[in-house]
C-alpha cells in the first residue's frame, strides 16, 4: 500500500496549474492541502480558501508531508526547499536554476535529514532523463550527453527556419504559450539549457559544477546570413548543450548554438520539443524525445516524481559518491563558426587553426579550431560585437559522437 501524500504546493502558474489539471483526472492517494502563491489579488480557478501567501502555513504544518515547489523565484525556492527538507518533508521541484546553483547543499540536506528531493520536471520537461541517468545508466560509461534542452529557443529557431517568422514575434509567442522563463534571456542566452545540463551531468558523471564555470552562448545574435548559410549547407541551427567525457579524467560542458545535419536526431526536433542524445559505451547511441516546456508536459513529469515519493524513492547520486576522478575542464579544443564584424575579435580569440575564411560585403565568417577558454574570456566582447558563434563539428566533417574534443594540457 502506498503512503498517503498530503501536499503543500508552492506556485500556481503555468506548471502549478498544469499539475493540478492532471491530478484532478486521477484517483491517486494524495491531496493538495494548501497552495502558496505570491499575489493574493489574482483571480484563481480554485476556491480562495485553498490559497495562502504565508509560506509557514505549509512549512510549519506537521500534517503536510510533501512539498511541491513550482515558483519562479530562485532564492525563495531555495529557502522553501531547504526548510522543507530540513523539517522531514519530501520535495518535488522544477526550478532548474535553483537546483543547479545549490546542488551540493541540496544533496547534503537530503543526506543529513534522510529526506528526498526529486526534479525530473526541471530537465527537459516531459522527458524522463534524470531517472534514466540515475538508474538505467548506473553502470554504463557515458561518452556524451547532448541535445535540445530549451523549448523556447527551439520554438524561436523553428519559427524562423520553417516559417520565416521574425525573432521578436516568435519570442512573444513562446512567452504567451507559457514556455519562456520570467526573464527570457535565461532561454535565448543559453542559461536555462546550462542549468539543465549541469543537473544532468551530476547524474551522468557524478560531477557537481558551478554554473559560473560553464560557457553558455545563446541565439540572440543569430542573423539572416547565418540561417542562409545553414540552409545552403542543408544544415539547421539548434541551441545545444554538450557534456562530454574527454578521457578517464576529464569532462567538459558547454552550451552553444550548433549546426546539425539531417542524419542527426536533433535535426527533426522542432518548436517546444526537446531531445536528448546519449552516447554510451555499450548501449551505443540512444535518443529521448518529448515536449520540453508547457504546463501539462512539465506537470506530467512533476506528477511522476510525486507518485515516486509515495514509495519513498530517492536519488542515490551513485556516481557522485563513487570514487570518481573525473574533473571538469574548459581546457579543450573545439571547432567553431564565428560570424563577426571586427577583425580584432578574431585576433583576440587566437584560433589554433583556421579551416575557412569568408568575406562578402558585410558578411564575414571564419571556421576553425579554438580553445574553449578563449571563448569564455571573450564572452562579453562577443556579445558586444553582436558576433554569432556556433559549434561547427558538422562543418568540419565529424559528428559529436566521434568529434575529437581534445583535452589540452591540464
Ligand atoms: N513553464 C514551463 O514550461 C516550465 C517551467 N519550469 C520551472 O517551473 C517553475 C515555475 O514556472 P512557471 O509555472 O512557468 O512560472 P509562472 O510564472 O507561470 O508561475 C510562477 C508561480 O510562482 C508563484 N510565486 C512566485 N514567487 C513566490 C513565492 N515567493 N512564494 C509563493 N509563490 C510564489 C507565482 O505566484 P502568483 O500566481 O501569485 O504570481 C506563480 O503562481 C520555474 O522555476 C520554471 O523555471 C520548469 C519546466 C518547464
Ligand atoms: N523556459 C523553459 C521551460 C522549461 O524548462 C524552456 O523554454 O524550455
Task: Characterise this structure.
- This protein has 2 domains: about 5-120, Rossmann fold (3-Layer(aba) Sandwich); about 140-290 and about 325-405, Dihydrodipicolinate Reductase, domain 2.
- With about 400 residues, the protein is an alpha/beta fold.
- About 35% of the residues lie in helices and about 25% in strands.
- It has helices at about 15-25, 55-60, 75-85, 95-100, 105-115, 130-135, 150-165, 165-175, 185-190, 190-205, 225-230, 295-310, 320, 345-350, 370-375, 380-385; strands at about 5-10, 30-35, 50, 65-70, 90-95, 115-120, 140-150, 215, 235-245, 250-260, 275-280, 285-290, 325-330, 330-340, 355-360, 365-370, 390, 405.
- The termini are far apart.
- Helix 3 (about 75-85) runs parallel beside helix 5 (about 105-115), helix 6 packs parallel to helix 10 and helix 7 (about 150-165) crosses helix 8.
- The mean pLDDT is about 95.
- The longest helix has 15 residues, at about 190-205.
- Strands 7, 8, 9, 10, 11, 12 and 13 form a 7-stranded mixed β-sheet that branches. The protein has a 6-stranded parallel β-sheet with strand order 3-2-1-4-5-6, sandwiched between helices.
- Bound molecules: NADPH dihydro-nicotinamide-adenine-dinucleotide phosphate (NDP) and the ligand N[C@@H](CC=O)C(=O)O.
- Ligand LTNE7NMQ binds near residues 125, 180, 187, 292 and 293.
Question: Helices, strands, pairings?
Answer:
Elements lengths: L4 E6 L3 H10 L6 E7 L14 E2 L3 H4 L6 E4 L4 H13 L3 E4 L2 H6 L1 H11 L3 E2 L10 H8 L5 E7 L2 H13 L3 H10 L8 H4 L2 H15 L9 E2 L7 H9 L2 E11 L4 E12 L11 E8 L3 E8 L3 H15 L8 H4 L5 E2 L3 E9 L2 H7 L3 E8 L2 E9 H6 L1 H6 L3 E4 L14 E2 L3
Parallel strand pairs: 1-2, 1-4, 2-3, 4-5, 5-6, 8-10, 10-13
Antiparallel strand pairs: 7-9, 7-11, 9-10, 11-12, 14-16, 14-17, 14-18, 15-16
Helix pairs in contact: 1-12, 3-5, 6-10, 7-8
The chain binds NADPH dihydro-nicotinamide-adenine-dinucleotide phosphate (NDP) and the ligand N[C@@H](CC=O)C(=O)O.
The site of the ligand N[C@@H](CC=O)C(=O)O has 11 residues, from helix 7.
InterPro entries: Asp/hSer_DH_NAD-bd (IPR005106), HDH_cat (IPR001342), HDH_CS (IPR019811), NAD(P)-bd_dom_sf (IPR036291)
Pathway: Amino-acid biosynthesis; L-methionine biosynthesis via de novo pathway; L-homoserine from L-aspartate: step 3/3; Amino-acid biosynthesis; L-threonine biosynthesis; L-threonine from L-aspartate: step 3/5
Keywords: Amino-acid biosynthesis, Methionine biosynthesis, NADP, Oxidoreductase, Threonine biosynthesis
